[in-house]
Give the backbone structure.
Amino acid sequence: MNFKSGCLADVAYNLVYSVNTNALKLSNSGDRTPQAYIIVYNNTMLNTGWRRPTAKGGSIWLEASVRAEIYNNLFANTRFGVKRDPKKPEDNRSLSGNNWYYGYGQLTVDQFQVGKNDIVGGSNDVRGKVAGENNPKFVSYPLETSVDNYVFDSTWDFHLQGNSPALKAGTLAFKPHFTSGLVMSNGLTYNSPQPAAYVGALGSKF
């Protein structure tokens, strides 16, 4: 999902699996008004970015003075964490917090550490340093699945088990753009969903 200048968007409750590069590219390029302001919350991203040969990104990429808020997202076995373009960074009003990182292998864990490769840190992030730390406890998904696997198995279930610590790791202390509705020219109104107190796109199944 690629956003440029002129966009005000709420991006929520998506499950993104094994895209070649970033799950989300957030940019203000294009010189359009308004400035791109993207709020990203309660998404689950898995195995993203591993099939790209360069180091541009692998989960969420920030560039060109985009204003972004990034909360309650679950990154499992993704290549890198939230990452910025050091030559054209994001707007300094951008915020991030309560995102959850899991890596089955040590290379994955090493690559989402803040301070390496222009990785962006957030308040109250869950970001261990050891492979296998902070298992989100999906209902049914083999965490040892190869990071460059691109075949999606429809029997996988990315809800969180009832004892998952990720169920209480989110924040409700922000407001999406369109909670009061976005009225379209055809008369239809679209409302952005409220954030959840869990991280990821899917909470408990029961």
